Fold each of these.
Amino acid sequence: MEEGIVKVVSPIDDTPAAKAGILANDLIVAIDGVSVQGMVLDDAVAKMRGPLGTSVKITIAREGVPDPLDFELTRATIAMRAVRWSMEGDVAVLRLSRFSEQAFVGVQQAIKDIYAERKDVAPKGIILDLRNNPGGSVDQSVYVADAFLKQGAVVLTRGRVPEESARYDAQPDALDAQLTDVPLVVLINGGSASASEIVAGALQDHKRATVVGTRSFGKGSVQSIISLGPDGAMRLTTARYYTPNNRSIRALGITPDIEIKQTVPPELQGRDEIIGEAGLAGHITVEGREETTVGSSVYVPADKAEDAQLQYAIRLIDGGETNVAYPPKAE
């Protein structure tokens, strides 16, 4: 919720909302003609849910559009599939939409299926698509990064007291051994947050992957839930995330090695950007680092052929594009 209005962080892939054209940053102002002002989030969500196949009208306020937009959505079963994959020629594309408990298992199965389809011949490269992935389980982010790393830190957390600090490391295993010589590109954008930034930052710092796209969201804090007894609980920020090279993710995000912007339709230009953590009131500042409140694009075309970031990554692996950042070179 933002000032009493439901804000869309990122529509889930292949859902009625995503297919209808609802975008990140859209504000849901009414559901079936009833204003959400004054509702708590759970009530608004309950009102949007309903029997399979029935319809619900969602009224959206979109920045830069003078009049509200109405979307008629048909309720459907939302398949919470964390990982999807496809082959673009000899390049494997793994789309990881969220870091649910199925994230690592999904990546593991996708790699297995890719090799099975190719009769154990490695792909020319792998693109790990983390765009508009809002995060999820920290443990899952460590497992996913570990799939591509032999050893070393994945993420560091630091709090005010030693008990709130930790280091999560990658371990040698059969999966990273299988993928050792396979080039890797990671796609990020303004909707990549939290666990997505942990993975992108770790692979970038270890020179395992080239990161392509636009700057990520900058959600680099650890929240703990503290019980207040039978009447409730409090969520308190207790630590910050740091990449292996000691870079704070908080309010800064991950900067891509190669910035590639999408060609945004005229009706969405200026409204395709999401303001990251640094643009939120009361955010935790990072001493000694200049923060930015400039938005980062979250727009991803539905048509792969029009997806500038994806197509650039494919050409980079295929050799149609060259850049000093690819392949990454160990220092």
Note: The first strand starts at residue 6 and ends at 7.
Amino acid sequence: MSNKINKEDLQTVEFSIDQVCTLYFYGDRVIRGVHDQYVEQVKEMMSNGMIDELVEKGLFVQTWISELEIEGHDLVIEHKKIPYWNYPYEWSFSMLHAAANIVLDCNEVANKYGFELFDVHAFNVVFDMSKPVYVDFGSFIKTDERDGSSWSGYNNFYNSFYMPLYLYNRGYSDLPNSIHLYNGLFSDKDLFLLRHKYSTILGSYLSNQLFKAHTAMRRLSAARYTRVIEKYGKHQRINQVLQLKKNLQGFYSASKARKLIGSVSKSKADSYWKDYHNDKNPGQDPRFIRINEIINTELKDASSLIELASNQGKFANFILENSQIDEIIATDYDRNALDHIYLRNQGRSDILPLVFDFVRPNNRSNTTNVLDRLNADVVMALAVTHHLILTQDVGLQHIFNVLSSLTKKYVVVEFMPLGLYSGDLNTIPEIPDFYNLEWFTKNFKNNFDLILDEQLEVNRHVFVGQVRTSNRVE
């Protein structure tokens, strides 16, 4: 059987600036065609022990020289496919902090072999379930002893990791993730003025000059020696420029970046739902126990599950331990609640925590839509539809459309016939006339084949349905 691939059978990413390789997708395989001028460098990287060590330590995605052949490339490498691609704006604080340390650890190993990382933005890290790994093979570049301890990746690292982590540390909640979602929303200058508030009392002119000087020093230090020569080589003060670069190298090095990340190791951002599941114990709650039984008995052929509005993920862990489900994507739009999931499960290969508002999913124009990246045999939404319908005016059909787009087989949804009832039958909040069990049942049956409708508590009905073949996600 021939290993040669026609280029028309390959898919590529729409936007890529990788100088070393071209990234291709071939069916379920992830491959890179190495450009001619980098073949020897890549062979060195694959043979000198660097990639082996990075993979062994869990810092870099599993990578090997592929047997596949692509016209125009003398060397092809291949990566393990990460099942549920994710982006920085879908991570919690601790996930972003862990990703930052993965970059620094990866760079440290590369330094041992005469390489460094230079294109170190957060989108080059992906969580393989609860394990962050660096994935950009083209980010490795040979080090130059003339650069001393300066790090060419410092500026990207500062903007993509330190900036949002600093904002978390100062108590900002939505802004850190929005930096990755909306390019240019928060700038270098914004961060400079926030970190150095004294500069604002000097007036706009002087504060601008201080910022420009700070930026110029950071850029000069991180610039590679060869780039400095290209830009200033014929300048009469080139020697002074090179000396200044040498003097600055300790201020903008990888070790300095590690100290910066260490200084923002805690988030002070607050959120409404972060403590909602503090006192929950699924193993002692008849409701959770019954839903788990339903998964075991009615959904026997399911092995993966997406939990929407998972909060701290306690029920997700209970399901993993007490059912046939062996893989869960646990999501919530509350970043602090999601942080609990990650901290409880970091390093595990069976659960992926993601920040996800499933009725209003965020996405960048140049990233794959989240609804095209996530799917599972079961999609479960407990204790959430009443909030969406009664307090946020979200239509029930929209909710069912999203559930249908995420599931391969089944949906598990709770309906609260008493709406926002909080335990006192004498003070039930008023609910609209349309909002009743008959209405919910009719709409559920219009979208799914009903398997089960069972009352769990006075204000809880669990509905279990199977997605129709015409609507099924493959």
Note: Residues 93-112 form the longest helix (20 residues).
Amino acid sequence: MTSADRSVAYQPAVHLSQAVSSGKLRSAQLIELYLERIARHDAKLHAFVDVYADDARKAAAAADEAIEAGHAVGPLHGLPIALKDLVDIEGRITSGGCKLWADRISPVTATLAKRLIGAGMIVIGKTHTVEFAMGGWGTNQQLGTPWNPWDMRQHRAPGGSSAGSGVAVAAGLAPWAIGTDTGGSVRVPSGWCGLTGLKTTIGRVSVHGVLPLCPTLDTPGPMCRNAEDAAVLYNVIHGPDPGDPRTLGHAADDPMPTLAAGVAGLRLARMPETEREGVQSDVLDAYDASLEALSSLGARIVDVSLPLRFSEMAGVVGRIIGAEGYALLGELVDNPDLPLDDDVRPRIQIGRDMSARDYLRALQERDRIKAAFGRALEGADALLTPTAATTAPIVESIDQTTTPAFFTRIVNLLEYCALALPNGMDSSGLPTSLQIICRGYEESLALRIGHAYQQATAWHEQTPPDFTQGSRYDAD
């Protein structure tokens, strides 16, 4: 991405890394570019809940001195990143999208934040989230809903719950960001904002220091411009951590050696015909075109018969989230006097009337579904679906009693991983998205498939039309 009319703000992070490492671009210039864009656009976009401008400038100056002295800590030294407002940084406010927690000071620094900072990256700020991360639309009644930058005339949903992270990267306010995903909260905003987002497997990335919603399903992940950026960022944040026992049984998994291996010979399963019902026609057209593109690259597209409808599996996820979310937050949502989001409150109260038996049965049902689904996908390397059934809706049109996480929740239920990536545009110029679902701990394969697709297409290079002006900084 070196065309003259392309803003530095929209270049992939790996390109920015090369420019900073080589001295063609200073970290201080890069930080100032993003801070200027935040100051210019975020009053409307509402992506950030807090911006660490002064500290980011100091860190960038120190990074430039270290790089010039030959003491860079790694190739990402001096690059900015945004964090979802669930990720603790000791001494900073982390509110979890909740007005009630507006003064909550983080007691620790999350392991993933320590790893980012240890790699030399600069946290430029915290991004808005749905209250308690409980919702796929991206709305927040109390703290405000970020504005999807693909339509600056009508307020469209950014997707949630990692709404601010999606908007920040899509609008060129940060080169990449961290989100979390319990039922689709990395992938839905990535899909609606035209980004590449990786839902990691439970136990891949430590959740130590990340505010929980549903510990059985919560997973942090990168939200980026392309699969290569996602692979690089995933490499930084994943790996064993004593602070999260579930990570200890899984060795680090470097996706880079196989990233460019292509898809020739892989068996990629298309979703059953019955799952196409109710999906926007533009979304289906883009999906079908994606299958053709991958087939032309040498992949074999195969049919599978799945044991349950996606909607049935999504319902099981809803019960698990409700039970665990209510165990953590029940005292808050049951108090009508507290300033909570009226759309989020009933989602968590689903767990109020669930007995221990009901919850354990939901977990047992999950185990049965995992076994049956595994048998159905034998011989397939991945399952391909749209990321969402529609493109981003107008906020006022949303039925908050429903969820857009129709295609995404099944991945959390199965303890799989998945990559969402841009694969087209609808008739209104809004991004469509492809979801690449792989078995648990096969992030490298999902990234490999996504990278192959992006090497053959250019959808991930598209940017919102109102944010394509050039920059006075040049990384080329």
Note: The first strand starts at residue 48 and ends at 51.
